[in-house]
Amino acid sequence: MNNIDYLNKTITVKIDRPIGSKHPEYGFIYPVNYGFVPNTISDDGEELDCYILGIFEPLETFTGKCIAIIHRINDNDDKLVIVPENRYFLNNEIKVLTEFQERYFENKIIRNSDYLEFNKNIPELSVTNLENSLTFYKTAGFKLEYNRPENKFAFISLGEVQFMLQELSNNDKWNLSSLNYPFGNGINFQLEVENINIIYNNLKEHNYKITFEIEENWYRQNDKLLGNKEFLIQDPDGYLLRFSQDLGEKEITQ
């Protein structure tokens, strides 16, 4: 059984390091219950280890749902994340609760394909033609997370950037007055990305007009400068998108 096959399954775990116990070699204290799945073999040759989240007393055994896998990129010792049936944890919460041990490793959290962590602020853009907008945003690298065709609505993401797109209709209660092109006049969305050149080249190759070409800019924050490589483009309805790649920081020179 591959580790990925445990996702969303009910798992029984034997706890060999209960909450509050001390690691026998490294000396740190376990802030969560930690154990293994009996009669399994992980890639390191030992039984498959598990973090138990959402239980705040020492356990000997536990049966719960596997909601995630912590995949160690520089190690061959993945961990299952097991929780009670009625509990839910975001990726950031999992990272905080397992940092006591996982901080020593490069890792990523693997979830079910339908897992989606919503931002606290998600702009909803009114668009004139949803299909045209989706074509543009997919060219820029956005992923369609889900849609409601009957409402001409789509939810898209690019890394941690999220937008909702809603095609205009005559009974749209969210628009208080008529919209005139460009819809985005007066605001631009700064979208932090990992590789700005790929996005820029894709848009250019598909003949989308770049509003401001790629340039390097440094902005003062108190006594230091923060660098961004960025370009500006309008989407089909005129919303201003400022794609930005972080260049780090440097000291202000006199």
The Rg value, from CA coordinates, equals 24 Å
Largest sheet: 5 strands, mixed, barrel
The ordered H/E elements are EEEEEHEEHEEEEHEEE
Which superfamily, in CATH terms, is the homologous superfamily of the largest domain?
A: 2,3-Dihydroxybiphenyl 1,2-Dioxygenase, domain 1
What's the tally of helices? Answer: 3
| 3D shape | globular
Calculate the mean pLDDT score and round it. 92
Strand order of the largest sheet: 1-2-3-5-4
CATH architecture of the largest domain: Roll
Q: Quote the distance from N terminus to C terminus.
A: 62 Å
Number of domain units: 2
Give the fraction of residues assigned to helices. Answer: 10-25%
CATH level 1 class label of the largest domain: Alpha Beta
Number of strands: 14
Helix-and-strand structural type: mainly beta
Low-pLDDT stretches are: none
What is the CATH topology assignment of the largest domain? 2,3-Dihydroxybiphenyl 1,2-Dioxygenase, domain 1
Which percent range describes the beta-strand content?
35-45%
Topology:
Elements: E1 10-17, E2 33-37, E3 48-52, E4 61-72, E5 79-83, H1 91-102, E6 107-110, E7 124-127, H2 130-139, E8 143-148, E9 153-158, E10 161-167, E11 188-192, H3 196-205, E12 210-221, E13 224-234, E14 240-251
Parallel strand pairs: 3-5, 7-10, 11-14
Antiparallel strand pairs: 1-2, 1-4, 2-3, 4-5, 4-6, 8-9, 9-10, 12-13, 13-14
